[in-house]
């Protein structure tokens, strides 16, 4: 069975197409077929002006129309698609109107989801459940407009929350000290008593890029000290220098430093020494959630 998800983030839009099949143990496995990313950068409009400009609206429409063509080419019907928009669209005064126009012109219905739902969908990748029960796990998903945290201990989800601290908000100086304090207090409060055994699980384009640059083998973690070193190293260069030295796109070179700042702060507050990067994200969670819905309604066909 082939499923797809569209994630309209504050920095980029993503279309993920995956095949689902049953492994020998009867559990579903998800194989990525294609991932198409378009740097819409909606947060640069929204977090400053509270609305999406006509130029960005046109980009959104063109992107979703292109995605629709790809869905048709891959044989994915709209009943096998889930689409969601996050922080920038939540904050945009004209977000709902734009998504109504998208549905009118493409037939694709995009939900504006809450930060809490976003955290839940990311958690539904169930990565921690595949790891040993002797440790506790903190999921950290850093986006352009928000950071989603989910804390997993004793085989159960103990805490999840969304904070309006994201890479584009930091670049636009939209994050105040009180926002940092709120996240720091929550992390320390919820992880109290576990701070010797927490392992982080990171998701988002920036931590994926750091992992790629590190040349670590798949399944091996990055250390807290490595992230601190990358933060200092990248901070010493301009955006143009980062593009040239590390072969980064401009829309990655500017946000990678604030992303590292967020990861380093959270890991410091929770006394976390290592972070795994399994290359998961909201689009993966949307596909898993859709699959579970289809199974419940007995529409899953293999």
Helix content: 40-55%
| SSE ordering | EEEHHEHHEHEEEHHEHEHHHHEH
Report low-confidence residues grouped into runs of 5 or more: none
Strand content: 15-25%
Gyration radius, rounded:
19 Å
Kindly report how far apart the N and C termini lie. Answer: 5 Å
Describe this structure in words.
This protein has 13 helices and 11 strands. The protein has about 300 residues and is α/β, with parallel strands linked by helices. Strands 8-7-6-9-11-10 form a 6-stranded mixed beta sheet, with helices on both faces. The model has no long low-confidence stretch (mean pLDDT about 90).
What is the fold's blueprint, element by element?
Blueprint lengths: L1 E7 L4 E10 L5 E11 L4 H7 L4 H20 L7 E5 L1 H5 L3 H12 L4 E2 L2 H9 L12 E7 L4 E7 L2 E8 L3 H5 L5 H15 L6 E6 L1 H10 L7 E2 H12 L3 H8 L3 H4 L2 H14 L4 E3 L5 H15 L6
Parallel strand pairs: 1-4, 4-5, 6-9, 9-11
Antiparallel strand pairs: 1-2, 2-3, 6-7, 7-8, 10-11
List keywords for this structure.
single chain, 302 residues, alpha/beta, six-stranded mixed beta sheet
Write a short abstract of this structure.
The chain has 302 residues and is α/β, with parallel strands linked by helices. It is built from 13 helices and eleven strands.
